[in-house]
Design goal:
Low-confidence stretches: 7-12
Number of helices: 4
Structural class: alpha+beta
Mean pLDDT: 81
Order of helices and strands: HHHEEEEEH
Radius of gyration: 58 Å
Strand content: 5-15%
Number of strands: 5
Strand order of the largest sheet: 1-2-3-4-5
Largest sheet: 5 strands, antiparallel
Distance between the termini: 182 Å
C-alpha cells in the first residue's frame, strides 16, 4: 500500500514537473513570438524611417540642385541686366549723336543744294530747264518734314552724281534754242563740261558756247563738217575719230 502511494506520488510529481516544463516552453514560445513581432515591427519602422530618410535626402539633393540652378540663373540675369544697361547707354549716346548730327547736317545739305543750283545756272546751258527743275524739286524734298533724313541725303547725293556723270560723257540731242529773238530747232553736241556746240537741222549754221562771254558764237563754215562728224560720233552712228573743234579755254 505504501509502495502504491509512493508510485502515485512519483507519478503526480512527474506530471507536475511535465506540466511546469510545458508551461515554461509555452511562455518561452510566447516570448519568442512577441520578440519576433517586435522585431518585425521594429524592422518595418526602420524601413519606413529609411524610406523617409532616403526621400528627405533626395528632396535635399533636389533643393540643393535647384538652388545651384537658381543661383546660376540669377547670376546670368544680373549679367544680362548689366549688358542691357550698357547697351542702352550706348544706344542713348548714339541717339544723342544722331540728333546733334541732324542739327548740323540739315543746314549743310541746304547749303549743298544751293551750291548745286548756282553751279547748274552758271554751267554750260545744256538741258538747262530740266536740270534747274531737278534742283528745285530736290530743295523741296529737303524741306519736307515727313521725309526721313537718310532719304534726303540719298536724293542729294544722287543729284550730285547726275551732275558729275555729265562731266564724263559725250552726247548729242535735239532741242529748241532762242537766238536773235526767235526759236530755232538745232542739234546740240556736248563734250563733257568742256564744250557745247549746236548745228541747225539744215546744216547751214554751227555755233559754240563761249563760257567766258556767256553767249553763243557762230563758227566759220570750215568747222561745219567736223561738227557734223562729231555729232554722228556722239550718236554712235560712226566710229570715234580725231576731230578738230574750236574750244575756248577758261582763264
Amino acid at each position: 500500500m505504501k509502495n502504491r502511494f509512493m508510485v502515485l506520488l512519483w507519478l503526480l510529481s512527474g506530471w507536475s514537473s511535465a506540466s511546469l516544463w510545458a508551461a515554461t516552453v509555452d511562455d518561452s514560445l510566447k516570448v519568442v513570438g512577441k520578440t519576433n513581432e517586435n522585431a518585425i515591427s521594429s524592422q518595418q519602422r526602420i524601413d519606413r524611417l529609411a524610406l523617409q530618410t532616403q526621400k528627405m535626402l533626395e528632396e535635399y539633393q533636389q533643393i540643393t540642385l535647384n538652388t545651384e540652378y537658381q543661383n546660376t540663373y540669377n547670376f546670368q540675369l544680373k549679367q544680362l541686366k548689366a549688358d542691357q544697361e550698357k547697351e542702352l547707354k550706348s544706344l542713348q549716346k548714339q541717339i544723342d549723336e544722331i540728333n546733334i548730327t541732324q542739327l548740323r547736317i540739315m543746314p549743310l545739305m541746304s547749303s549743298m543744294a544751293d551750291a548745286l543750283e548756282k553751279f547748274v545756272v552758271l554751267d554750260l546751258p545744256f538741258h538747262q530747264e530740266a536740270r534747274v527743275n531737278g534742283v528745285i524739286q530736290l530743295k523741296q524734298h529737303l524741306r519736307n518734314p515727313s521725309l526721313p533724313l537718310p532719304d534726303k541725303y540719298r536724293l542729294l547725293l544722287e543729284a550730285f552724281q547726275i551732275e558729275n556723270d555729265y562731266g564724263r560723257s559725250v552726247e548729242s540731242y535735239r532741242d529748241t534754242l532762242e537766238r536773235d529773238g526767235e526759236d530755232i530747232s538745232v542739234e546740240f553736241l556736248r563734250i563733257g563740261r568742256v564744250a557745247l556746240y549746236y548745228r541747225t537741222l539744215d546744216g547751214v549754221t554751227s555755233a559754240y558756247w563761249n563760257q567766258q562771254a556767256r553767249e553763243w558764237q557762230t563758227l566759220p563754215d570750215e568747222y561745219a563738217r567736223n561738227i557734223s562728224d562729231a555729232i554722228r560720233v556722239a550718236s554712235n552712228q560712226v566710229a570715234p575719230k580725231l576731230l578738230r573743234l574750236p574750244m575756248v579755254m577758261s582763264e
